[in-house]
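Example 3.2
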Amino acid sequence: MGSAEERRVLKISHQMSMDSEWRADFVDQLGARIINSRQMRLPDDMAEGCSYFMEVMPGLMVLIVDFTFHTSIEFTKLASKGEFCIVYFDLSDNISLHQVNGTRHQVGYQSKLGLGIVDAALRSTYIPAVGERMYSFRLLVSKSLLKTYFQENMSALMVDRTFDGRKNTMFFYSHIKSSTWLALNQLKDTSYDSPSFELMLKGVTFKVFGHLIEQMNETGPVIVRQITEVDAAQVMKTQAYLMEQLQENFPGVDLLAEMAGMSVSKYSDIFKKLFKFSPKQFFLREKMLLAQVLLGSGDFGNISEVAYEVGFGKPGYFSKLYKNMFNEFPSTAFRSRE
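Structure, written as tokens:
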């Protein structure tokens, strides 16, 4: 039997599709209201805000989820048979602060990967925070549309094989590009009732989609061999654990594989397919990205303090690694505490 807190969580399962029919699940289960065919609002006692769904062009839909929830709801998106993927852009703070008890740090940092590309064939679950604004910009993109952007560099046969849902799964997480972040933040501050909102939304969607294609070309294919929902979920748990340990030393692949319930070889293989780096490379990269944020925060007296904060006992070694990653020394990004 679960705890009282677990029993208070309202659990909702819903479909997702390239048309507006999927919203019927929210109407039936939560009493949601559809307004002007675009907006969907939840009952006032559940959440304030709305979602906004619109077709931008054939094969490309945009969905904004903008709610502040008053009650805890667990949303489970069921596996879809449609040949499309969902691209998530989370505009919550990239580095969030939280209290850490029993450690040498008064305040801990948890980094987030704000960009996710998930095959619609995968089941996924999320629980939004209560009392905090959730703003998520999502693209629903047909695989046939994506194919058109890879045909110049790949043969038609290779493109068809790559996007064959019977053999491969789209799954990728990364950070949001700064150009995309700026475009989405401008949209975030625009009223849904503005006469120019729909026009602005279309323009931002095309811009974000263009940035996404560029990023996919830069990072390589976001296609992996078929993976099970269980394996993906278990590896994602270890990734989230790593993001919470950025001030500490790398915990080791053996521990991570044990957490995932896999052999070291299987775990390492799946992790690299999903995140394009080995677990240790991924951890070091995220640690350096956190350091970059802290260097420019103005909260530290010198660079050594930042090095210690992200778990480096030797500032010189920290500076060397930072230079290798960003092609500049930490002093370039450092802003001293005033």
